[in-house]
Design brief:
48% helix, Cyclin A, domain 1, mainly alpha, single chain, 246 residues, two-stranded antiparallel sheet, 4 strands
């Protein structure tokens, strides 16, 4: 998540980046899972997410300044962006757990700490779910509620009354998601518990696609089927001069 922190992107941007990448890989498999095609896809997904959520978006080359293995010309990234958008049927405004965070935070009977601290801890948990493929089964609303409950921490009593949950939210799915977060994320995500918002690091990240590194293993290793995405020979030849290996 270093790229996300370096550019001070919103948590939604990071989550959407992984969302686009995962949805693309659910339909296509890359010919070189760990080679330049995956890095190009990662840069394109990050760029698209930033364009959707950020007021100021870095130049495409500026997303690749931090020791990437390959450097792509802007035109090459833009072509990949078009390919991603076409694969997603141009549906880039995905509903995410962040759309529900304020709803559940405001429903808490009392806040054990500041609203900002709870929001930060819940956001960190939601971003951490991209590392565990099991969370793909849960609706965004269920993930948001579970993240809030986990962020509150010890002593929190799971709501027994249905009035706490909107009609469209499955209470049992929230409970299952909450248990999964407690099992997989709390010990591995130190920021999951309440804390003061951290200061953004000033050091340059080592990779322009660090925000997607966590999703890479889960996405590539679990895609055993799907159509093979093999660019035509002409496309590979015409794109080759635009890819510079570092």
């Amino acid at each position: 998540m270093q790229v996300h922190a370096y550019y001070n992107f919103s948590p939604v941007t990071a989550f959407l980046s992984v969302n686009y990448l995962d949805r693309f890989l659910s339909s296509y498999s890359l010919p070189l899972p760990n080679g330049w095609p995956f890095q190009l896809l990662s840069v394109a997904c990050l760029s698209l997410a930033a364009k959707m959520e950020e007021a100021e978006v870095p130049l495409l080359l500026d997303l690749q300044l931090f020791e990437p293995r390959f450097v792509f010309e802007p035109e090459t990234v833009q072509r990949m962006e078009l390919r991603v958008m076409a694969a997603l049927n141009w549906r880039l405004r995905s509903v995410t757990p962040f759309d529900y965070l304020h709803l559940f935070l405001c429903k808490l009977p009392s806040l054990p700490d500041s609203f900002a601290s709870l929001l930060s801890a819940s956001s960190d948990l939601i971003l951490s779910t991209t590392r565990v493929i099991d969370f793909l089964q849960f609706a965004p609303s269920a993930m948001a509620a579970a993240a809030v409950f986990c962020a509150v921490g010890e002593g929190f009593q799971f709501p027994a009354h249905d009035a706490f949950f909107p009609e469209s939210v499955n209470k049992e799915m929230v409970r299952s998601c909450h248990q999964l977060m407690e099992k997989y994320l709390i010990d591995t995500c130190p920021s999951a518990r309440l804390k003061e918002p951290s200061v953004q690091p000033s050091l340059a990240p080592p990779s322009p696609v660090g925000v997607l590194d966590a999703a890479a293993c889960g996405s590539c290793d679990t895609r055993s089927s799907g159509s093979q995405l093999e660019p035509p020979a002409k496309r590979l030849r015409s794109s080759a001069p635009d890819v510079q290996q570092q």
